[in-house]
Amino acid sequence: MKTLNKLNLILSILIPLAVGALSSLLSGNMSYSAFNKPSFAPPSFLFPIVWTILYILMGISSYIIYSSSDARKEKALTTYKLQLMFNFFWSILFFGFSQYLFAFIWLMALIVLIVIMICQFYKISPFAAYSQIPYLLWCLFAAYLNYTIYTLNR
């Protein structure tokens, strides 16, 4: 890996944070408390904390891959960008359009992309891949929560 480029690292962290913030802004005014939720649903204050941590980890991982001299990095970064796009649209589908079933299907596609991304990252940097495991686990939990909310609110 090349020497640490602080500007690129900061930009790599800011990109997913900005994507998450913009997605949240475009999701509309629907409140998390506006629909029926299962008993295991986390409190609303937890989501921005968790997502901030996950977006920072995404940025660090993408920076590690970006800084690599590995020939596979372009393909891995393309998958990273694609999963980030899917991540961006999920909350708009779920909160903005109240399309709970479609959002669940979209989230399942996102999870597949995350798994592919982790596998691609692993070949370049195991650390970059391992730091995406919390993101994968959170999205798996979010899919379960999303599907349960769909069944409770149809």
Number of strands: 0
Assign the structural class, choosing from mainly alpha, mainly beta, alpha/beta, alpha+beta, or little secondary structure. Answer: mainly alpha
Order of helices and strands: HHHHHH
Contiguous runs where pLDDT drops below 50 for at least 5 residues: none
Strand % is: under 5%
Helical content, roughly?
over 70%
Outline type: elongated
Rg result: 16 Å
Q: How many helical elements?
A: 6
Q: Describe the biggest sheet?
A: none
What is the typical, i.e. mean, pLDDT?
Answer: 95
Give the termini distance in whole angstroms: 50 Å
Architecture overview:
- The chain is mainly α and 154 residues long.
- 76% of the residues lie in helices and 0% in strands.
- The protein has helices spanning 6-26, 46-67, 73-96, 100-124, 126-130, 133-152.
- It is elongated, with a radius of gyration of 16 Å.
- The model has no long low-confidence stretch (mean pLDDT 95).
Keywords, separated by commas or semicolons:
154 residues; mainly alpha; elongated
SSE map:
Layout (H helix, E strand, L loop, with lengths): L5 H21 L19 H22 L5 H24 L3 H25 L1 H5 L2 H20 L2
Helix pairs in contact: 1-2, 1-3, 3-4, 4-6
Short characterization:
This protein has 154 residues and is an all-alpha fold. The protein contains six helices and no strands.
